[in-house]
Each structure stands twice: as structure tokens, then as C-alpha cells.
């Protein structure tokens, strides 16, 4: 068997050099690829979330799984993120937002409302709590500067959770690229079927939408060409009514599309979405 000048067998030396090169390359490229199934976060949600309510007491007692997941998202480079498919990027950002919100509550628990965190001048959504691409940003940065700016997907507003009972419920599973569209549709359908999402008063000719649709109505207008109907509604109200109609039973959806009712917005319950 041939050997080098130091007496190491040639094939063994080659293997050692190859291993070293692969090790260095792994370190340069971020080592282990990010888990696009979000398995760690998914398992956490299945344990801690029931019908949209969160076991914050249990999560406070053991936040190790949440911390590991947030460490994994923080380890994703911007270059790697940009190389993903759009559905992978959006699922990642939604899960990151929801996980960071859970972490924010846990770090201040017990609290009665997320709005108790921070100050009048710098509320909970303006706290630097989201580690991303080597920086630490706020939940507002994540939502408005990344998601709303770069993705025309109004359904995110029914997926991002603000830790309040008036919010769309936190799903008991992680969002994943392969079924993201179906998850967002299901999330929209569930929220609009709840009393916090939509209320119809046919007798009084009043439709009351969640305040989410008032705050983000413009996102539902983008790319929307209103069909006939929707009498008496402005552009934002028509777009919201049209969006909601697609997730309601046929009779309710048809009622929204006709118009002739006044629009109101439901009071938002900011109390903590705890079990």
C-alpha cells in the first residue's frame, strides 16, 4: 500500500483531507439546512395550543423547544432564505412571527394582555425581539416591512397571531409550504365562522367585521376588481365583503355581495389568549 512521506496510507490521507474539506464547506454554508417542515415548532404547538388558546404557564415552565426553534430560524442566512420558493419563505415568516410573539409573552408572563408589554411610546410590536438575518428587528418590522411589503397575501392577517382573544386563533400546527394555501384558506374559514371574525344582522341590515379588516382593508383591495353588487359600500368594504363571501355558506356569501347594509367593526378583545 503506498504511503506519504509521514507514513500515513495514501487512501487514508485522502479521506482525511476530503472530510476536512467537507467540514469546512458545511461551516461556510450554514451547516445543516433549515427544516422546512418546521417539525420542532409543530410539535410545540400541538402540545401547547388547544382551540387557539395557549398554555403559557406550561410554556413558561419549559420554553426550551421554543428557544431551539427560534435559534434555528435565527441561523438562516438572508441568501439562503432568498433561494427558497415563495411558499417556503412565507411559511417561514408566519411561523417566525407567531413563535416570536409566544416568546414575547413568555418573557413577560404573567400578563393579562400583550398590550401590557412595553410603554405608551414603544408598545409590544415595537420591541426588538425577532432575530433574523443577523439582526434583531420588531414584530412590526417583520409584518409591515417584510411580509406586507413583499408578499401580496391578505390572508396573512388571519394567520399572524397577536396573543389576544380577538385575534384569529393560533393554529395547533406549523404552517408549511406544501399545504400553505390550504392552511390559509382553512384559517380564514374558521375565523369568519367565529363571533370574533364576522357578525351578520340581516334584520338591522348591519354587517360587523373584525377590526382586522378595518386596519388592513387596503391589503384586500390590491388587485380586486369589484363585480356588480356591493351597493352602498366603499372600495375597501367591497373588497373585504368579497373576500369574506368566499369563505361563508352560500346564503351568507350572497348576502354580503348584494350590499345595501351598513358596515361596522367589532370591538377587539385584547385579553390574553391563554387557556
Condensed summary:
The chain is built from twelve helices and seven strands. The protein is mainly alpha-helical and 275 residues long. Helix 11 (235-245) packs antiparallel against helix 12.
Summarize the helices and strands and which ones pair or pack.
Layout (H helix, E strand, L loop, with lengths): L9 H19 L10 H10 E2 L2 E2 L1 H6 L2 H11 L3 H6 L2 H23 L19 E5 L2 E4 H12 L29 H13 L5 E4 L4 E4 L2 H4 L1 H5 L13 H11 L4 H9 L3 E4 L10
Parallel strand pairs: 6-7
Antiparallel strand pairs: 1-2, 3-4, 5-6
Helix pairs in contact: 4-6, 6-7, 11-12
Task: Give your account of this protein's structure.
This protein is mostly helical and 275 residues long. The protein has 2 domains: 40-191, no CATH class; 198-265, no CATH class. 47% of the residues lie in helices and 9% in strands. The chain has helices at 10-28, 39-48, 56-61, 64-74, 78-83, 86-108, 139-150, 180-192, 212-215, 217-221, 235-245, 250-258, and strands at 49-50, 53-54, 128-132, 135-138, 198-201, 206-209, 262-265. Strands 5-6-7 form a 3-stranded mixed beta sheet. A two-stranded antiparallel sheet has the order 1-2. Residues 1-5 and 18-30 have low confidence and may be disordered.
Structural classification = mainly alpha
Count the domains.
Answer: 2
Shape: globular
Using only CA atoms, what is the Rg? 24 Å
Which residues form runs of ≥5 with pLDDT under 50?
1-5, 18-30
| Helical residue percent band | 40-55%
Write down how many β-strands occur, each being a DSSP E stretch of 2 or more residues: 7
Distance between the termini: 69 Å
Report mean pLDDT, rounded to a whole number: 91
- One letter per element, helices H and strands E, the order comes to HHEEHHHHEEHHEEHHHHE
